[in-house]
Amino acid sequence: MALNRQSMMSALLVTLCLGSALGVIYSSHVCREFYAALQELEAQRWASQEQYSRLLLEHSTLASPHRVLGLAEDQLQMHAPNVESTRVVTR
Amino acid sequence: MSRRPSSAPKFAAWRFWVVSLLLLTLCSLLIGRLVLIQAIDKDHGSEFLKKQGAMRAVRLAEIPAYRGLITDRRGEPLAVSTPVVSLWANPAHLTDSGRLDELAAALNISVGDLRKRLALYGDKQFMYLARHQTPDQARRVLDLKIAGVRSEREYRRFYPAGEVVSQVVGLTNVDGQGIAGLEKAFDEWLLGHPGKKRYLKDLHGDAVRDIGVVTEARPGKELALSIDLRLQYLQHRELQRAMVETGAEAGAAVTIDAWTGEILAMTNHPVFNPNSRAGFDYAATRNRVVTDAFEPGSTIKPLTLVAALESGKFTIDTLIDTSPGRIRVGRKMLPDPSNYGEISVSRIIEKSSQVGVTKIAQAIGHEPVLDVYRRFGLGVSSGIGFPGERAGIVPNRERWSDIEKVTLAFGYGLTATPLQIAHAYTVFANKGLRIPLTLLKRSPEQTVDGERVVSEATASEVLTVLGRVTGEHGTAKRARVDGFSVGGKTGTVHKVGAGGYIDDQYLALFVGIAPMDNPRYVTAIVVDQPKGDAYGGGAAAAPIYSRITNGVLRLRNAVPAIEAPTETRLVALGGGQ
Q1: Do residues B143 and B256 share a domain?
Q2: Nearest to B308 by CA among B376, B255, B365, B225
Q3: Are A83 and B571 in contact (CB < 8 Å)?
Q4: How far is A23 from chain B (nearest CA, A)?
Q5: pLDDT of residue B147
Q6: Shortest Cα distance from A46 to chain B (angstroms)?
Q7: By residue range, what is the domain housing residue B90?
């Protein structure tokens, strides 16, 4: 009887041991998968940042005061109002 | 009949035992070795072997970190880090490669140059082929798949506003460290901290597989400046234009919001392009507004006026006889442009009369004047922490000659930077409070504590006089701005050369406050060596002030003082904040 319990115990421990070993294998596999996903995301971030800074530069080039002034004066014939053409609107 | 074939081998017990023994010995040898490595031998055991293995295959790579963005007060980018790719190679692997022609063509250099560089770095493991390529350019080279050519991710700094704000923002070196201007001053803040990752490499040094991140890269923090790019551009444009018109060597301008101590614009001539390192002139990176200290000349007279008013011996209406238009101090004769006769203290400042100021200085002595200069922050650095900032000199002599006591009162014998002079004038706009300056944006809720340096009454009297300088009798009629009343003070200073003052070389100065009914914006203009007859502060510097202030007031939504018309018209008044 005692012997039986002991062998049951060792069988259980062996199973648990094997289970945990398989668990280790599985978790390291999952870890690798996650890391691959992370790398993909990082590559995406890099690409987005590339695009972001390119757009930022593009935007600030297009919106530079120099360009805006040139367009306003040359193409649209605009000018800053002088005092004579200014009226103060008070509420 | 069942009989074993005679040819069948006979079971030989001894052979069985020999083989078993052999296998057992081998097995126990293996087990022994295992035990030795795992448990007994500490020096050359498992730890040691693991380390040796890792040394041969595991490498740490840097994860580049993003350097913080620098923006103006409205969020316009002034310095942006963009991802770029640097190409490098192991010269030892590349030299024997038969594809150098192809590589040189892709890199846009001659094969000869490439060979020369390979020879130069022949005994090294690493050499850059091309740094800071755009990702597209680099991809073209990498797509050739030439053995030994590798890439590395980096960031490169771009300055969208270019030369307009170059001296203020400064620049970084090729490795992304700030080396000038605010890039240097706030390097710690902007700096990204690169992370580390572990990877496995193969025999050729190529990365086979990433193992994991050791430390995450931490990007740098953003920096919002007090500079308003629109004002900065306006000031830049007007200053450059004036440089051409006056034929001046150099120039500087600064505009301060006196209420908050924020520097709204700060420009210089000559300028440099921070986006191009070719033909780079380091002298042009100088931000003259903070690095050039000179004798402030007549622009300091309002401070002398403070000392005069505080002495109780003068009011702004006290009459002083300035005839015959010159005065002898020691061995030196100090002249006025003409004989002004008996004029008020106020008029002395309006006309910038040397004789008048000399008489005031002789009446009050030099100590009160020195005391006022110190209280207004001359001789002390402004605290904005700009690299290379000068504090100027306020002399502290044992003995003062008669002429030194007098010249001190009209701005000779001491030095100050344009920023210090402008800062001193903010006191008059702030009713006697001196608010610390900053190049960083202050949040609207943030209250700034000023230090009282003069009484409100004195400050307002000086302000009145400054308003008259642009008036009918003043020296700065050309500083006027349509629709607004402005005040200020001109200055014309002889430049100092090897043998003392140079007769025909001047600095033309103007410092102004606007608008006078609600004083807020202080602008200082320096024109270095204007050519021709228009060399004075009133002729060379005041018109620049007028044009800049016109734009400042419009862009900052100041309300012009104009009569309401009978007809009603709707007119827009400039932009937002």
Answers
A1: no
A2: B365
A3: no
A4: 20
A5: 78
A6: 8
A7: 61-224
Q: Is residue B298 flagged as an active site residue?
A: yes
Least confident of A37-46, B87-96, B199-208, B454-463: B199-208
What is the rounded CA–CA span in Å between residue B209 and residue A28?
15
**Residue B248 and residue B185 share a domain:** no
CATH number at residue B154: 3.90.1310.10
What pLDDT score was predicted for residue B568? 44
Share the mean pLDDT of chain B.
Answer: 87
Could you tell me if B87 and B196 lie in one domain?
A: yes
Question: From the candidates B298, B344, B352, B353, which is the catalytic residue?
Answer: B298
User: What gap in Å lies between CA A62 and CA A55, rounded to an integer?
Assistant: 10
Percent of chain B exceeding pLDDT 70 equals: 95
For chain B, how many structural domains are there in total? 2
**Beta carbons of A54 and B76 less than 8 Å apart:** no
| Residue A87 sits at the chain B interface (C-beta within 8 Å) | yes
Whether A83 sits inside 8 A of B560 (CB atoms) is yes
Predicted confidence (pLDDT) per residue in A2-36, tens digit: 678 889 999 999 999 999 999 999 999 998 888 88
Distance (Å, whole) CA B288 – CA B285: 9
ipTM value of the model?
0.75
pTM of the model: 0.82
Q: Quick check: A60 and B160 CB within 8 A?
A: yes
Asked if B242 and B187 sit in the same domain, the reply is no
Smallest Cβ–Cβ distance between A87 and the set B80, B83, B569 belongs to B569
Of B158, B160, B573, the CB nearest to A86: B573
- CA–chain centroid gap for B99, Å, is 45
Tokens of B22: 């052999």
Does any CB of chain B come closer than 8 Å to the CB of residue A91?
A: no
Q: Which of B316, B357, B361 has the alpha carbon at shortest distance from B340?
A: B357
B169 and B92 part of one domain: yes
Same domain, B189 and B247: no
Supply the CATH number for residue B446's domain. 3.40.710.10
The mean per-residue pLDDT over the stretch B248-255 comes to 94
Q: Which of B83, B161, B569 sits opposite A50 (nearest CB)?
A: B83
Closest by alpha carbon to B265, among B295, B209, B306, B225? B225
B279 falls within a domain: no
